[in-house]
Design brief:
Blueprint lengths: L4 E2 L12 E6 L7 H5 L6 E3 L18 H10 L7 E5 L7 H10 L4 E5 L2 H7 L35 E2 L1 H12 L6 E4 L3 H5 L18 E2 L16 H9 L9 E4 L6 H10 L5 E4 L2 H5 L23
Parallel strand pairs: 1-5, 2-3, 2-4, 4-5, 6-10, 7-8, 7-9, 9-10
């Protein structure tokens, strides 16, 4: 279901054949960084446009129609090697990776260290790119099923699903785990949320694994396997359980998803609305002690 990190050794072979580079940018500066510098032939992936804009939360996963329209426009086939990168290094590119995988792309990777790592290797960049894959040439013609993308809804949680699982988790009736990638002070409610209208706090029973426990803050590259193991095991995260990742807007939760995949976790899901949705609505009046769910011994295997 998931693939490993790509390296900067991809070099300029990403410009031809069945390899496509897709740059996902920080939605706060949607196309500024891409216009400034990009990998030649890269396609611009706009988080807030390739999204379900009928839902009032930031960059929600796109509908089948929106995603297929995008991939057909730029001829991004399911069989292509799709390399996602961002200008920071390892921030929004995992969201791009997870999106393509959810829609059924076969071979998706993340360029660890992003554009900075690409440039450090002495690889070329261009300015004012149209972001449409200019310079790319196909090695073989399109196949009929090349763009038959379909969203795998089983790996996506909505608010209703979260409301259903929270009391079960707190009653220890299921082994599922909810993770939160926000900074610790936001998770504990020690500081206000950066987005207006959101209350402080966290999803009851969730576990905080801040994304900077996964990404090196200096290099913006993913940490070593040993460091990743410690980040999750030190918080009691069992990789055999179903793990639902969340954060502020569903962005850095995908960093958790990528790291968990690298560690071998198989049962992974994203709470797409994350705190942007959950924190906007008053907390339900949970009564975990009065729940009728029968407590039992839980195993993730």
């Amino acid at each position: 279901f998931f693939n490993d990190t790509a390296t900067t050794e991809i070099s300029t072979r990403s410009l031809v054949g069945s390899v496509r580079c897709v740059q996902e940018t920080d939605p706060r500066v949607p196309d500024v960084e891409f216009k400034k510098e990009s990998i030649p032939g890269a396609i611009f992936f706009h988080l807030d446009k390739i999204a379900d804009t009928t839902i009032p939360y930031p960059h929600m996963l796109p509908t089948n129609e929106t995603f297929i329209e995008f991939t057909k426009k730029y001829k991004i086939r399911k069989t292509d090697l799709i390399i996602c990168y961002d200008h920071l290094g390892f921030f929004s590119s995992p969201r791009c990776w997870f999106t393509f995988k959810l829609f059924g792309a076969f071979n998706v990777k993340v360029l660890d260290g992003g554009l900075a790592a690409w440039k450090k290797r002495g690889n070329p960049v261009v300015s004012d790119s149209p972001g449409d894959g200019t310079g790319f040439s196909f090695l073989d013609p399109d196949k009929p099923d090349s763009f038959s993308y379909t969203l795998d809804k089983s790996a996506v949680f909505d608010l209703k699903s979260i409301y259903d699982i929270v009391p079960k988790i707190n009653a220890k009736a299921v082994s599922d785990i909810i993770l939160d990638a926000r900074a610790a002070d936001r998770f504990t409610g020690a500081v206000d949320e950066p987005r207006p209208g959101l209350r402080r706090g966290n999803i009851p029973g969730s576990i905080n694994v801040p994304f900077f426990e996964i990404v090196d803050a200096k290099t913006w590259t993913i940490k070593s396997m040993e460091e990743l193991k410690v980040a999750f095991s030190s918080r009691g995260v069992d990789l055999e359980c179903r793990i639902i990742c969340s954060c502020g807007t569903g962005m850095t939760a995908c960093i958790q998803l990528f790291a968990l995949h690298r560690l071998g976790a198989k049962k992974l899901a994203l709470y797409d609305g994350s705190w942007a949705e959950y924190g906007l609505i008053p907390e339900p009046k949970w009564d975990f002690l009065a729940t009728k769910i029968t407590k039992q011994s839980i195993s993730c295997t």
